[in-house]
Design a protein that fits this description.
By secondary structure, this protein is α+β, with helices and mostly antiparallel strands. Helix content is 22%, strand content 32%. The longest helix has 12 residues.
Length: 77
């Protein structure tokens, strides 16, 4: 295996209940920002390995070896 093969590994993350395929080596922050803007989601919760992340500084650099889910946040009432 070479480095190019590693950078092109595709994985799926869940965004608002929908599976989205991305490259494992992509930047988490930049990729999530782009996907959320495309989907028009402006209120959300991010889970990394089952734990809620409340600050972007706590996000991992890449998706590799992490289970990431974005849930749409809807305020009741």
């Amino acid at each position: 295996m070479n480095l190019n093969e590693l950078s092109n590994d595709k994985i799926s993350i869940v965004v608002a209940g929908e599976n989205v395929e991305i490259n494992a080596a992509d930047s988490v922050k930049d990729t999530l920002k782009r996907i959320l803007e495309e989907k028009g989601i402006d209120s959300f919760t991010i889970l990394v390995d089952g734990e809620e992340v409340t600050a972007t500084s706590d996000l991992p650099e890449t998706f590799a070896e992490h289970k990431i889910e974005v849930q749409r946040y809807v305020k009741a009432g």
